[in-house]
Write a structure and sequence with these properties.
Ig_V-set; 5-stranded mixed β-sheet; Ig-like_fold; binds 2-acetamido-2-deoxy-beta-D-glucopyranose; about 325 residues; about 25% helix; Ig_sub; Immunoglobulin-like
């Protein structure tokens, strides 16, 4: 009985030893396996980050493997630019220019603006590093947008501006600023010969006008005729990108309407043409009006009405 008992005791001892050995082997296997897994995942994900300079995939945040957590902590916050900001910015001379730089995941890094022409650091964060008060980094609307604002733009402000993030290595985007000078010209000038009694249309082309002019005034000699014109019709319309056209239409032109006509837009220097009335001696330069019906006084004298229309068309243009 005793012997039998001892024997079975020995057997269980042997069995438990076996179990412990198996357990140890299993633990070792798990350790090796997870080490391999860890190495594997970090390697592929490091490759991922080196080939993808943009934001890391958000999906990795929820990954539950051992390697994931370490990788997420190190690279999720790597800053990246939003590529959709304008790289070519144009502004009208004297107007305020806004250069956008949107940085995601900025973290503890800073955004600087550098003028490439002379490598002058303009701003670091929102701190100014230039004595010229026209430069400033403003933070409005989008929290990730570091907007370089340049007030009262001058021609010398044209060129490349660098938005730089203080990562290691540094990352940058470049914005090219153009300052446009609007220019007005009247086609057919400087001298336009027109037959007495016919009609004439003067076309003033305002080019390089990225913003529409607030108004376009027309002058006959030194008198402004927008408001008191008895015979003219004036229109203002957008012709192409950065181009606005204003037309002055005069019917049944008489001696009194000869002289100097000037187009004076709000955003460009004035331009003039000289209108000479002929008595039919120079037909080549004439502009005939097929409609020889008598003047409609109500229509042509309604200067208030047309002025209203001009204002409306400008407002319409501006809000488009
Ligand atoms: C990195 O991963 C890309 C695919 O994501 C693969 O084409 C490339 O061969 C890998 N490079 C290395 C060095 O493993
Ligand atoms: C930004 O542009 C770079 C290259 O031009 C591209 O690799 C990256 O994916 C873009 N980033 C975003 C957020 O689209
Ligand atoms: C780079 O990351 C972006 C953002 O997570 C992702 O949309 C894009 O597919 C990735 N590109 C590559 C080549 O992995
Ligand atoms: C910016 O302008 C340059 C030339 O002035 C042109 O080559 C480039 O395509 C423009 N870029 C964009 C995004 O319009
Ligand atoms: C910046 O824009 C101007 C005007 O569009 C162009 O003449 C110039 O070549 C551009 N500069 C660069 C570096 O793209
Ligand atoms: C428009 O501006 C460009 C430079 O910005 C200049 O080369 C061109 O002559 C200008 N055109 C007119 C009609 O003023
Ligand atoms: C028209 O008048 C303006 C100023 O009144 C003058 O500067 C310009 O030279 C004149 N132009 C012509 C063609 O007579």
């Amino acid at each position: 009985m005793l012997e039998a008992q001892e024997y079975s005791h020995l057997q269980t001892k042997k069995l438990s030893l076996l179990a412990i050995r198996r357990l140890l082997r299993l633990i070792l296997r798990i350790a090796i396996f997870s080490t391999l897994l860890l190495l594997g995942t970090t390697r592929t994900q490091n490759n991922d980050t080196s080939t993808n300079t943009s934001m890391p995939d958000k999906r990795s945040l929820t990954e539950e493997d051992n390697g994931g957590e370490y990788w997420v902590a190190e690279t999720y916050n790597f800053p990246a630019f939003d590529n959709n900001t304008a790289k070519n910015v144009s502004t009208q001379l004297g107007q305020t220019a806004f250069l956008h730089c949107i940085v995601e995941n900025l973290g503890d890094k800073t955004v600087s603006w550098i003028r490439r022409k002379d490598f002058h650091v303009l701003t670091v964060g929102t701190d100014k590093y230039i004595s010229d008060d026209r430069f400033q980094t403003v933070r409005t609307g989008n929290d990730n947008d570091w907007v370089l604002q340049i007030k009262f733009t001058q021609l010398k402000d044209q060129g490349i501006y660098e938005c730089q993030v203080s990562t290691d290595p540094k990352i940058s985007v470049f914005v090219n600023l153009s300052v446009l000078v609007a220019e007005a010209t009247i086609s057919g000038g400087p001298k336009i010969i027109v037959e007495k009694g016919s009609s004439i249309e003067l076309t003033c082309v305002i080019s390089n006008s990225s913003d529409p002019p607030k108004f376009v005034f027309w002058y006959h000699n030194n008198r402004m005729i927008n408001y008191d014109s008895t015979r003219g019709d004036i229109s203002v319309e957008k012709a192409a990108a950065k181009t606005v056209i204003s037309k002055l239409y005069i019917r049944d032109i008489g001696e009194a309407e000869s002289g100097n006509y000037t187009c004076g837009p709000s955003n460009a220097g004035p331009t003039s043409v000289s209108v000479v009335i002929s008595n039919g001696e120079n037909p080549a330069a004439m502009q005939h009006d097929g409609n020889s019906a008598p003047l409609n006084g109500v229509q042509t004298r309604a200067s208030l009405l047309w002025n209203l229309l001009l204002s409306l068309s400008l407002i319409n243009y501006v809000t488009r």
